[in-house]
Amino acid sequence: MDADGTVGKLYGAKTTPHMFIVDPQGVLIYEGGIDNIASTDRDDIAKATNYVKEVMAAAWDGKPLPVKTNPIVRLLCEVQMN
Fold first, then answer.
1. What is the pTM of this model?
2. Which residues pair with 15 in a beta bridge?
3. 58, exposed or middle or buried, with CB in 10 Å at 0-12, 13-18, 19+?
């Protein structure tokens, strides 16, 4: 958790969900939404391409990343940080 927004501010988080994946060397390897469907409908989850899951799997296996950024992040609300 980033209760005080320290990490969110460092990476420029603006809206939720805005995902950041950082590798063990501290390199930002993914920034964007969780998936490719900007929806809060649970039925859309099965149809969506989960970019976070794909990037994590590729990074874990030492494979090329399938995607590095995804512009679909403005789904829910603005991030409120102190």
1. 0.73
2. 78
3. middle
